């Protein structure tokens, strides 16, 4: 049975023990954990008008995982705590406005479930890239709940850094777990990006260009989504990874006749810290070149 077209979906959370606090907009914290009870935190003095809770960051937390657990957007957490970057550290306190509890990360179980063994994939040529079609890596077909793309007139750059716990996995396993989360957790037709670029020169097709993506909230129409695999808040991709992005982005832009003025980082179109400060800075240089 076909389901409704893709849209942003807020997952339901199971209730956990947390510290409720009446607090104001003050500094900061990060990193939830996947199991157990959130640590008790002494909330700093704050105006009584601001409702929410204080959370102490734990190892492995990201702003995105805290957002998924609390239902508070990354943008709201960033503004409430006056954060100047996406970097958070264990022991830091974050005020989460407008929520009274944290649940489990809805992505955690999907990321922990392994896939089956794989056949070898084609290798990228030296100095170039190789596009790997979806049917070569994916375990599931694209769902019926999608829209047709139409003419592409803009391109948005992302990174996969919001998905904690994937650093030691193979590229294909990361793809499958994100795809599973988008399909089963978000109820989307497939992984939201059209292409995901690995550091070895392989470029994985997430969904065909003929199908509208699910990567920038309400700005998906006529918008091609390209994601760099990795976390690029602190440092940019290595030189080979950037060279592949540069070449593929240029080739794709010229093929689709998309001018540089129609290139965006995720944060340009939606409340987000994606594609990370370092990759976003590279994108601005690319657009000026």
Category from helices, strands and their pairing: alpha/beta
Query: What low-confidence regions span 5 or more consecutive residues with pLDDT below 50?
Result: 8-48
Radius of gyration: 19 Å
Q: What is the ordering of alpha helices and beta strands?
A: EEHHEHEHEHEEEHEHH
- The tally of strands reads 9
How many individual helices? 8
How many domains? 2
Estimate the global geometry from the Cα principal axes: globular
The CATH topology of the largest domain corresponds to Lysozyme-like
CATH first level of the largest domain: which class?
Answer: Alpha Beta
User: What is the averaged pLDDT score?
Assistant: 80
CATH architecture of the largest domain: 3-Layer(aba) Sandwich
Helix content: 25-40%
CATH superfamily of the largest domain: Peptidoglycan recognition protein-like
Largest sheet: 6 strands, mixed
Distance between the termini: 48 Å
Please indicate the percent range of residues in DSSP E strands (runs of 2 or more). Answer: 5-15%
Strand adjacency order, main sheet: 4-7-6-8-5-9
Offer a concise description of the structure.
The chain is an alpha/beta fold and 289 residues long. It folds into two domains: 52-97, LysM domain (Membrane-bound Lytic Murein Transglycosylase D, Chain A, Roll); 130-288, Lysozyme-like (3-Layer(aba) Sandwich). Helices cover 25% and strands 13% of the residues.
């Amino acid at each position: 049975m076909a389901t409704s077209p893709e849209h942003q979906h807020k997952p339901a959370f199971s209730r956990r023990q947390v510290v409720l606090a009446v607090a104001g907009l003050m500094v900061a914290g990060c990193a939830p954990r996947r199991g157990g009870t959130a640590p008790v935190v002494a909330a700093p003095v704050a105006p009584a008008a601001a409702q929410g809770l204080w959370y102490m960051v734990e190892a492995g937390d990201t702003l995105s995982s805290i957002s998924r657990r609390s239902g508070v957007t990354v943008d709201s957490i960033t503004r409430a705590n006056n954060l100047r970057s996406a970097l958070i550290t264990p022991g830091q306190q974050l005020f989460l406005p407008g929520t009274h509890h944290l649940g489990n990360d809805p992505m955690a179980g999907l990321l922990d479930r392994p896939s089956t063994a794989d056949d070898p994939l084609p290798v990228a040529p030296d100095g170039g890239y190789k596009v790997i079609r979806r049917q070569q890596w994916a375990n599931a077909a694209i769902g019926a709940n999608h829209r047709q793309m139409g003419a592409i007139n803009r391109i948005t750059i992302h990174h996969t850094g919001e998905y904690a716990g994937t650093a030691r996995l193979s590229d294909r396993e990361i793809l499958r777990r994100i795809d599973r989360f988008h399909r089963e957790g978000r109820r989307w037709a497939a992984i939201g990006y059209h292409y995901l670029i690995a550091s070895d020169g392989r470029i994985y097709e997430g969904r065909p260009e003929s199908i509208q993506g699910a990567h920038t909230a309400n700005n998906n129409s006529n918008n091609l989504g390209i994601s760099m695999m990795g976390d690029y808040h602190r440092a940019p991709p290595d030189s080979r990874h950037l060279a592949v992005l540069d070449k593929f982005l240029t080739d794709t832009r010229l093929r689709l006749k998309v001018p540089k003025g129609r290139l965006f980082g995720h944060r340009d179109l939606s409340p987000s810290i994606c594609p990370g400060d370092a990759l976003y800075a590279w994108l601005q240089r690319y657009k000026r070149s």
